[in-house]
Amino acid sequence: MHGSSIKATFDFPGAASVSIGTTGLSPIQEQMTDNAWKFAVQGVLAADNTVKLSATTNPKDEGVAASKENQGYRFAGWYRESKVTVNEVAEDPAYFKPMVTADKLVSNVIDYTPANTPDVKQLEDNDLFIAHHQAQVLFHDVAGNVINKDTGAVDSTIGDDWYDYFDLLPSALLEVSPVAESGEALQ
After folding, report:
1. What is the per-residue burial (b if ≥16 Cβ within 10 Å, else e) of 88-117?
2. Residues 163 and 137: beta-carbon distance below 8 Å
3. Which comes out higher in pLDDT, residue 63 or 142?
4. 22 and 48 Cβ atoms separated by less than 8 Å
5. Terminal CA-to-CA distance of the chain, rounded, Å?
6. Is the model's pLDDT at 186 over the cut of 90?
7. Closest Cα partner for 36 from 80, 95, 101?
8. What's the pLDDT score for residue 136?
9. Residue 59: per-residue pLDDT
């Protein structure tokens, strides 16, 4: 006998964990995963018209988890892919790229509850919900200063450089100061 189920995961390994709340088929235990490649799977009944999905974004450094300096990862929306019959996939970042597109965005809220109505089905058998995450990547010069990746100039106001796991990082342009024979930078 086979039943219906939905799945949830995230697309940036190490960035998060996700959970699927209880259902009529599993009224006591939510299902979760902290492995992007092995999906959380929760059985659902035809009468289950809502199920809560939650994502927890991991801090880049547990020592600064509560501070504003902890800008390692960010949640960037829930995406829905229909008719996913597998419960785990090979470790290939390209797997998620066609699933995380504007037309598949279903919510920007970290705790999302899809709801079925007679007219709209937001929750169906074999749906995979993906918590899209991004990482902040700041480029630094050899002195440790944050630099603008496009100009190479020191720029401490840069802070909105967020990247998807499946995309390549840009090359950073380095600004080189002339150096005297003594090894000191010329002014």
Report:
1. eeeeeeebbeebbeeebebbeebebebebe
2. yes
3. 142
4. no
5. 77
6. no
7. 95
8. 81
9. 75
Q: Tokens standing for 7?
A: 């799945």
pLDDT in tens, 120-139: 999 999 999 999 999 887 77
Residue 84 three-state SS: coil
Hey, what amino acid is at 125? D
Amino acid identity of residue 23, one-letter, is: T
Instruction: State the Cα–Cα distance between residues 184 and 147, nearest whole angstrom.
Output: 20
DSSP string for 13-57:
TTSEEEEE---SSSSS--EEES-TTB-EEEEE-TT--B--EEEEE
Question: 140 to each of 1, 53, 56, 69, 156, how far by Cα in Å?
Answer: 57, 37, 28, 16, 10
3-state secondary structure (DSSP) of residue 102 = helix
Give the confidence band of 65 by pLDDT, cuts at 50, 70, 90: very low
